[in-house]
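Annex B.
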Amino acid sequence: MNDSVDKLVIFLAKRDGIDKLVKTFQYVSKLVHWHAESTNLKIAERAKQWEVSSGLSRKAFRTGRFLTGLNALRRSPGSTPTLRFLAVLANAGEMVYFFFDHFLWLSRIGTLNPSLARKMSFISAFGESFGYIFFIVSDFIALKEGLQEEKRVMNLEDKSIDKKNESIRKIRSDRVMRLMAVAANVADLIIAVADIEPNPFCNHTVTLGISGLVSAWSGWYRNWPS
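Peroxisomal membrane protein 11B: predicted structure tokens.
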């Protein structure tokens, strides 16, 4: 019990930890609003207020987050030239997303002209979706390389069983994390497409709600202290 509490404290001390918790509030309240809209208008109204306040809180809390992408661009992580190139594109898109998200937040709260909100939302979502596409491609390439590395390790004859098992455990652990990243990025891509090109599927409340929760809980898993 104490270990779980300690892990929760560590998780909530992280910027990403708080973001995933508030994101859970945001999309749970979106689904509650949709469900209660036709049966209980009072609960639906409260859920909508919770959703809006959670969304705005997340935007405020992410102030300066684009610098993370700038730092990642500077480092250009990746084990191969292809992965480094994909990382540059992915982080550039994410940097655009977080940078213009600031202006979207300011226009939503009335500090800037509210009429700018739609334009800022489009630019931010476009950068977001651009980045997520390359993050997803990078993760699939890394997953493929991980499978190849696992086969190579299993066929090694000059390595002890214990060392083989340890290497395979690390490879499989990394695979789970990358699968969580793919799930989160695909879910966020659906949400971004709903802003860029509204359509019945992506913009349906259930689609957005489930996508938001998949993204939040995948991120929760990836950020939870080991």
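Residues 117-154 form the longest helix (38 residues). The mean pLDDT is 92. Further annotation is deferred to the next reporting cycle.
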